[in-house]
Design a protein that fits this description.
The protein is mainly alpha-helical and 199 residues long. The chain is built from seven helices and no strands. α4 packs antiparallel against α5 (103-131). The model has no long low-confidence stretch (mean pLDDT 81).
Length: 199
């Protein structure tokens, strides 16, 4: 596996963990346990994700996130609490993916993985805050379900096709930036309207 594939996988997993950290950990561990993902020798540190205790805690976290994410405003509270958790988790996942014999690459992976995860989390949280302004309750559950399916599918693509992982990471990065800009524009319209002075 070449450096571009490794960077692509690290970028994709860290970006996806900004959406669904626990699902990323659980799905990766389950795929490793079922031998669906062959773990290269330099990625042996990821084998800890296949530990039954780690998978069990990640499954509980994924279930809690799945349920909390479907309820309007509860998802915002959940996202607020996880503003620190997801970026650190994304940084640690990216760190585990790169070659441990190169400290410079590890530092870069940690910083870029944490930044990518934070950016994806910010895009998700901003988009969900905008969706929460909708008066009907179904849009929140629909957006959350799309995030669940997209995360699982993109994780599969990232691990199964390492060359495409870099493209996936770039698309996710562009989507996160787009969501942040869209949320900014909508929030400005909602809260910072220019009012005409009374005469």
């Amino acid at each position: 596996m070449g450096i571009m594939e490794i960077i692509g996988i690290a970028g994709s997993v860290s970006l996806l963990s900004g959406w669904r950290l626990y699902l990323c950990i659980f799905a990766t561990g389950l795929a490793m346990r079922l031998d669906a993902i062959p773990v290269p020798e330099h990625l042996a540190s990821l084998a800890v994700l296949a530990n039954p205790w780690v998978m069990g805690i990640a499954a509980l976290g994924a279930l809690a996130e799945f349920l909390a994410d479907k309820v309007m405003w509860l998802d915002t509270i959940w996202d607020t609490v996880h503003t620190l958790v997801r970026p650190v988790g994304g940084a640690l996942l990216a760190l585990a993916i790169v070659d441990p014999s190169d400290p410079a690459t590890q530092v870069l992976a940690f910083l870029l993985g944490g930044g990518a995860s934070f950016l994806a989390h910010g895009g998700k949280a901003s988009a969900r805050a905008v969706v929460n302004t909708s008066p009907e309750p179904f849009s929140n559950a629909a957006v959350s379900s799309v995030e669940d399916v997209a995360t699982a599918g993109l994780l599969y693509l990232a691990y199964q096709y390492p060359v495409a992982a870099g493209i996936i990471a770039l698309v996710l990065l562009a989507a996160a930036i787009g969501l942040l800009l869209l949320a900014r524009r909508i929030i400005k319209r909602l809260f910072f309207r220019v009012r005409e002075p009374l005469e």
